[in-house]
Specification:
By secondary structure, this protein is α/β, with parallel strands linked by helices. It has 19 helices and 21 strands.
Length: 597
């Protein structure tokens, strides 16, 4: 980049000496003494890119994405600048929960292809220097898994592979009563009666997802063998699903207490109870450590854990510690949990949300940032299309590992899905009047590649979910050809984050107000960068010198700006005065701090 001279050592020392600046030195102890980016583990030096396999690319024309479709996009993924591709489940499944009900933990569902297709995908990614991570779904299987069929028949050694319990009693009509009041995440009792076995089985999710019994050593060994199978296939790591549900108390006669201030008076709603007996049980961490030990038998493998909706202290436990390492990191969902829509987006809210993670993260551990995924609305729909670039700038330039859901790099938006087209079982359960409140289909629609039929996703005559009507304007091809686009900004950010100030530099927050958020990345001997974001829905003119808690130079060079900013004064390469900076609604402006000549 053609930038003017940076402040250099003197400027960096000013920041280090300012006692009122929030500084995170060298972004975690593991970095100390590391001179080169390549010496970091891969999960620290790359962007994790989540692929929803049904929706990236369809190779066979059946309307649903598949492994060959993903392989065909390997060059795109490499060119995008991401380093790790994470696949949502592709295992054999009846699809009661779209792949999270697994009938075979070591196979590939024919919908997505074959094991040979998987091996070709792994090779295609590895040949381009990309890593491949799989979803690991350990809490439950499908009720169509052979283990469950044998467990229902009490065939050894499978009799106790699942959580079974006798009825508490029988009602006046002779129907069995569940052993306790535990509820399913998907509403209603977490217990289903099996006439054949004359017992209830436990399922924290759908009835077609019976919970595995991790008090059974055989089950624990089976699941470690699942990890070994995929590691031997060349997988580089795992995202572990629903880990907090892994154990429940041993005494199944206990009821969970009613939650105070839950916001629901429906006794069948999951939120009605306080889940003290079925979440975050201490035995969970023992099993996670066993998995960590398996991964550590293979070089440079990653384990990332899903922990959602818990108090921050509970989330941080999944990092482990120096003597008992667990996950490389638990997913940081705070930007989703705390910032649900544009009205939540303020400079203060961003700073508080970032601090909540960084201030509670154990010493020497590694942060990460998640803006969205296949379970939550698109970033552009939650915060507005004008904020897409600013939020991508934020998560890609903060210290730590950013996680991007496919399509966010081009600013895809939620798609309206009619009741007739609804596919998500979670939405279907609530019927035509309420499905829109619960369906996850709107954020799962096919990737928009170009302006041809079905957005270039398939050569067939239909798609498993409708393509968004805006595909002719919002697509990869158009954004590659445009002079400025979300995609081009994303690619520049992916390249920029490899520079030393972002790799191992310090971080400070010079200006934070209701309307403005800023973050600085700097390192002695290197250029210093300042990202300024207008979180409001109106144009803002700000004097950064007036608000800043550190001394800033008079001027800076524009490196990147949101596509919504069309001013001649902020064209990349332009010099702007920090005392009279104008930002359009939702804008992100990345600056290189300079000395005046």
């Amino acid at each position: 980049m053609a930038n003017k001279a940076a402040y250099g050592a003197l400027f960096a020392l000013l920041f280090l000496s300012a006692i009122f600046v929030t500084v995170i030195c060298i972004i975690g102890s593991p970095r100390d003494g590391l001179a080169h980016h390549e010496s970091f583990p891969f999960w620290q030096r790359t962007i994790v890119y989540q692929v929803y396999p049904r929706s990236l690319g369809d190779s066979d024309g059946d309307g649903a994405g598949d492994l060959r479709g993903i392989s065909s996009k390997a060059d795109y993924l490499h060119g995008l600048g991401v380093g790790t591709v994470w696949l949502s489940p592709v295992y054999p499944s009846p699809m009661a929960d779209f792949g999270y009900d697994i009938a075979d933990f070591v196979g590939i569902d024919p919908l997505f292809g074959t094991m040979a297709d998987f091996e070709e995908l792994r090779a295609a990614l590895h040949d381009r220097g990309l890593k491949l991570m799989m979803d690991f779904v350990p809490n439950h299987s499908s009720d169509e898994h052979q283990w469950f069929a044998k467990s229902k028949r009490r065939e050894e050694p499978y009799t106790d592979y699942y959580v079974w319990a006798d009825p508490k009693g029988f009602n006046e009509t002779g129907q069995p009563i569940p052993p306790n009041n535990w509820l399913s995440v998907f509403r209603g009792s977490a217990w289903t009666w099996v006439e054949e076995r004359q017992q209830f089985y436990y399922h924290q999710f759908l009835a077609k997802q019976p919970d595995l019994n991790y008090r059974n050593e055989r089950v624990r060994e089976e699941m470690k063998n699942v990890l070994r199978f995929w590691l031997d296939k060349g997988v580089d790591g795992f995202r572990v699903d629903a880990i907090t549900h892994l154990f429940e108390v041993q005494d199944l006669s206990q009821d969970e207490p009613v939650a105070s201030h839950s916001g629901t008076d429906d006794p069948l709603d999951y939120g009605y109870l306080n889940h003290t007996l079925t979440l975050n049980q201490p035995e969970t961490f023992t099993v996670v450590k066993e998995w960590r030990d398996v991964l550590d038998q293979y070089p440079d493998k990653a384990m990332i854990i899903e922990v959602f909706g818990e108090e921050i202290e509970e989330v941080m436990k999944y990092y482990g510690n120096d003597s008992v390492p667990l996950a490389d990191f638990p997913f940081n969902f705070l930007l989703i949990e705390h910032l649900r829509n544009r009205s939540d987006l303020t400079g203060f809210a961003l700073k508080d949300t970032i601090d909540l993670w960084m201030d509670n993260m154990p010493e020497g551990k590694w942060p990460n940032w998640v803006l969205g995924n296949h379970d939550y609305g698109r970033v552009a729909s939650r915060f507005g299309t004008d904020a897409v670039d600013a939020l991508n700038m934020l998560v890609l330039l903060l210290p730590g590992t950013p996680v991007t859901y496919n399509g966010e790099e081009i600013g895809m938006v939620n798609t309206f899905i009619s009741w007739e087209d609804t596919q998500d079982p979670q939405g279907c359960r609530y019927g035509p009047e309420h499905y829109q409140e619960f369906s996850r289909d709107p954020e799962r629609t096919p990737m928009q590649w170009d302006n041809t039929s079905f957005a270039g996703f398939t050569k067939g005559n239909s798609t498993w979910l409708p393509v968004n009507e805006n595909y002719k304007e919002v697509n990869v091809k158009a954004q590659l050809q445009a002079e400025e686009s979300h995609l081009k900004i994303y690619k520049e950010l992916a390249a920029l984050r490899k520079e030393e100030p972002f790799v191992r530099g310090h971080v400070a927050y010079p200006v934070v107000t209701f309307e403005i958020f800023s973050v600085m990345r700097y390192l002695e001997g290197y250029e210093s960068y300042l990202l300024v974001i207008n979180t409001s829905e109106g144009e803002v003119e700000v004097d950064l010198h007036h608000h800043s808690n550190v001394e800033l130079p008079p001027s800076a060079v524009v490196i990147l700006r949101s596509v919504t900013d069309t001013s001649n004064s902020t064209v990349p390469g332009s010099v702007v005065k920090l005392s009279e900076l104008i930002l359009v609604p939702g804008e992100g402006l990345l600056l290189n701090l300079i000395e005046e000549e």
